[in-house]
Amino acid sequence: MEFQKNTVSKQDIGQTQEQEKEVSLSPEKKQEIIKAVVNGKINLKNCNELIKDDRDINFSCVKCGCGLIDISPSFKNDREIVLEAVKHSGGWNLERASKKLKNDREIVMEAVKNECYSLKFASPELQNDKEIVLEAIKSYSFVLKYASPQLKNDREFILEAMKINGEVLQYISPELRNDKEFIAECFFINPPKRMKDVFGYNKEEFIANFKKNLEEGRIYY
């Protein structure tokens, strides 16, 4: 690995602890290091402590698109840095965030908006947050499997989720899946194309006809 004149060098990266105490990084040197990291020429985790523990360098690298895997592990509990990271790649960065920040509602919501499967790495408390889970299923229904058992068995919540994504029924609790009247109500909210033409547009009529066909084995879900 070689750098042009006035760029960060291997010697810069491998300075001894004694040298580190005597040297501070100029703004120009920091920019050279940031550019090298972003271009994949060096890895911050392999740099000396002076560079590796410099917050400006780590934060700037994240703002340029680097993930938490690319920067010093000591910053996985830095709220501002983690929040910036999940805006670029929610899931993988939330996975590497500290336990504390996986329970930070703003960070998890931002991660879920960026990548819905980020819900998998959220804290149990936030996997039970209705607003966060509803945001996640806007993209794909399968992420409901990462929601809390309580939400997957919450009738009102599932009915609300059905308005957003009709495929979530695959991931609800066994108890609700075995409730034929509840399933009929779910399908009434968000039915497959033309189902209401067959079973009726009145809610009670639809549910009654749906249940009858379900019990007779004419419908599978």
Descriptive overview:
With about 220 residues, the chain is an all-alpha fold. The chain has a domain at about 1-75. Helices cover about 50% and strands about 0% of the residues. It has 15 helices and no strands. Helix 5 (about 55-65) runs parallel beside helix 6 (about 80-90) and helix 6 runs parallel beside helix 8.
Write the layout of secondary structure elements.
Elements: H1 10-13, H2 17-22, H3 27-38, H4 49-52, H5 55-63, H6 79-88, H7 90-96, H8 105-114, H9 130-136, H10 149-152, H11 155-164, H12 174-177, H13 180-189, H14 195-199, H15 203-215
Helix pairs in contact: 3-5, 5-6, 6-7, 6-8, 7-8, 8-9, 11-13, 13-15
Task: Give a brief description.
The protein is mainly alpha-helical and 221 residues long.
> In whole angstroms, how far apart are the ends?
58 Å
Strand content: under 5%
Report Rg: 25 Å
Biggest beta sheet summary: none
The dominant shape is: elongated
Count of individual beta strands: 0
Strand and helix order: HHHHHHHHHHHHHHH
Q: Given the helix and strand composition, which structural class is it? A: mainly alpha
Helix content range:
40-55%
Mean pLDDT over the full residue set: 87
